[in-house]
Amino acid sequence: xxxxxxxxxxxxxxxxxxxxxxxxxxxxxxxxxxxxxxxxxxxxxxxxxxxxxxxxxxxxxxxxxxxxxxxxxxxxxxxxxxxxxxxxxxxxxxxxxxxxxxxxxxxxxxxxxxxxxxxxxxxxxxxxxxxxxxxxxxxxxxxxxxxxxxxxxxxxxxxxxxxxxxxxxxxxxxxxxxxxxxxxxxxxxxxxxxxxxxxxxxxxxxxxxxxxxxxxxxxxxxxxxxxxxxxxxxxxxxxxxxxxxxxxxxxxxxxxxxxxxxxxxxxxxxxxxxxxxxxxxxxxxxxxxxxxxxxxxxxxxxxxxxxxxxxxxxxxxxxxxxxxxxxxxxxxxxxxxxxxxxxxxxxxxxxxxxxxxxxxxxxxxxxxxxxxxxx
Length: 375
Description:
This protein is α/β, with parallel strands linked by helices. The protein has helices at 7-10, 32-40, 44-61, 72-76, 78-83, 88-98, 105-115, 126-136, 152-155, 159-173, 192-208, 213-220, 226-240, 257-265, 277-281, 293-315, 319-324, 330-339, 355-370; strands at 18-21, 118-125, 143-146, 247-251, 269-273, 285-288, 346-349. It has two domains: 3-27 and 101-146 and 225-370, Rossmann fold (3-Layer(aba) Sandwich), CATH 3.40.50; 32-99 and 148-220, AF1437-like domain superfamily (AF1437-like domain fold, Orthogonal Bundle).
């Protein structure tokens, strides 16, 4: 119903702003699937990193149409988790006991929920999403996630297939991790190390697993990837009737690039929080911080004054200005300043001139923050 004949709009009873966010790397300070691989698979961190690298290079560098635009990692590791004995109960308990949240995560998400329609669209397994919602005390219905069913009936893998998968996992971790850097969607010649890695994983996933229960499990795992995030944005927009210029998207993973770029082009707030290089390229604002409160501060400004107000705030990001600024939520601003007494969170307005430097700095911060050893 157009606003001019919508009585709810005339009375100011509908929202014109909304938030969609990827909680992993924002509300959580860890890579939940990588942590799960480390728990159940020998050298699971390297195992995950190699498959993640394979998915990224085949999707974004080789532009294979049959890849899920970076979503395949969570699907491809699933049968290996099963082969090494992981059950749904084990995974649920693991996340209940070990999933960690970022500073002020609970306060930040509750601020969003109180102010505007808020949605979580995550690549995390549903077990991790369940645990996160419990820890943050928020409704599970506001979050989508990747499905994972590790029951024997769903997987249907024989003992021999499990043994074969464990053998393949050992072969994978013996591969060398390539270190080449690539630009988004720019075809080029791969290094010899990259070619060997891709050939080895192609042989496993396209040949040796073909026709097996593991291949069926990969196909049946419904993941949230770049394409799914873009479709979800359009579905949410249709449901809420909030346009892109009233949308906040908070992300940080490579699979957030596509949806972040859409929000940026629509003059919404596309915010990279401790983002990967690709995420920063899709953003108009980038934040480097160990605490989430700064995002609530920027969201309050966007809710009140729109994207230009956020740009004006970011362009004057210093303690003296922030202490005296006429901001929409003074208590929230003061809380952010108090939580950062020595150094403010790093906040950047992304331009063509600085995107490369900010992306490199943000990516390095992300690695230190999300992949540090935790006690």
